[in-house]
Amino acid sequence: MQPPLPLELIISIVSFLVEPRTRKDAEINVINRSTPNIRGQASRDLLTCSLVCRTWKDVCQALIFRWIRIFCYEDMVDGFSFFHFTVPRLCKHVLEFSLVFSGDIESIPRWMDECLGRFTNLRKLELIYWSDMDAAVSFQLAQGIASLLDTINLKHLSLLFCDNFDDLLRILPACSATLERLTIQGHDGYTPTTVLTTPLAVRLEALRSAELYGLLNPFTQTNTIECPNLESVTILHYRRGPWGLPPWIPASITKLILQVSSTSGRLQFSRAVYPASLKIELNSLIGDVAWVTECINHLPFLNYLQQLEIKISSARNKFILPPSAHYEALCRLLQPLQRPTLLLHIIFSVDVRRCVDIGVGELEDVRVGQEGRLEEAFAPLIKAGGFSAQLVVRYRGSEETPPAVMQCSV
């Protein structure tokens, strides 16, 4: 009989079977049909390998249960009883925990706090539709979550489609010393009607990155937190009308990322911030650059920038590329900004949802022609140095043809 494989080699082999988190279709039921509301993200091959022997099972389970999503309905027993009563030992493998709530939840099991306390290695917690729960239920659950976070080193807290910020400010103090990344997304179209009742701001010393999707909520409009060491801020804002940065963002941030549409209102700076890096991601159906022009012309920190990246994305049903006028407009906008210490990077990203099949030879002609247009339009910037431009086109021909990518750069 051949000797067994070393444990280190088994771990190395099995790790190749881990399904990337970017694949949404990889979210599967990792337990059995009796627990349909528990999901994980593991490949079928990984699940099969867990059946080889006890050693392989232990290695695979650590990977299978590293990310778990529970859909919480009614009394939440169905989702958590598996971990609490059947296999509590698996809780230690969970590194990322995603909980999806509903308005059907009427009560919290008495053993919930004990169950939550077993997730001792949790590094990311994602709470989805928290605001759909009754206030009394969410208050009780927030206490249990805060007790858990008080004993672990949580790095990333994510609240999606959440407008109950009083509960958030009950949870945040429990992870204030360890939290490095905070993601908040409110309900689309939400208009704040309540005022936060927390008298003092929560100080998050370890926070380095904040992602805010939707700014019309009390959390982003009041001084609810202090984050003196915050480095990167990402803001998605698609609404019309003027808007500004949350008042708790420190002036010392190093990177600001704006995700906007061509119909977004203009960003107004009521106070100073001095990011060294600015990235503008503009979603435009026609690739129009007018919003970028308006924004840059009103930036109060242009002299402090060391890197400026502009990405303009458009989705079309035909293989139509940005006109030369858009390239030239950006060149005229950026030329006065150019200096030896500033890096400029432009990306045009076109997603062609439906188009006729394009031959390889024809596509190469298009690519060469686009590179020529980029070189001609941005010639002054290219000559001065510190500038790069790209055109990335993702397209599909017939339904049988897999998606393809055309890319050219200067």
Helix content: 25-40%
**Total count of helical runs of at least 4 residues:** 12
Number of strands: 19
Mean pLDDT: 83
Q: What is the CA-atom radius of gyration, in angstroms?
A: 25 Å
Distance from first to last alpha carbon? 60 Å
Strand content: 15-25%
Alpha-beta classification: alpha/beta
Weakly predicted, low-confidence segments? 22-26, 190-196
| Strand neighbour order, sheet with most strands | 1-2-3-4-5-6-7-9-11-13-15-16-17-18-19
Describe the global form: globular
Largest sheet: 15 strands, mixed
Structure description:
- The relative contact order is 0.05.
- Helix 10 (324-334) links the parallel strand 16 and strand 17 (343-352).
- The chain is α/β, with parallel strands linked by helices and 410 residues long.
- The radius of gyration is 25 Å and the shape is globular.
- Mean pLDDT is 83; it is low at 22-26 and 190-196.
- The protein has a 15-stranded mixed sheet. A two-stranded parallel ribbon has the order 8-10.
- The longest helix is centred in the C-terminal third of the chain and has 18 residues, at 360-377.
- It is built from 12 helices and 19 strands.
- Helix 1 packs across helix 3 and helix 6 packs parallel to helix 7.
- The chain has helices spanning 7-15, 44-49, 54-64, 77-86, 112-116, 135-149, 165-171, 218-221, 290-296, 324-334, 360-377, 379-384; strands at 27-28, 38-41, 67-71, 96-100, 124-128, 156-160, 181-185, 202-203, 209-213, 225-226, 232-237, 243-244, 255-261, 267-268, 277-283, 307-316, 343-352, 387-395, 404-409.
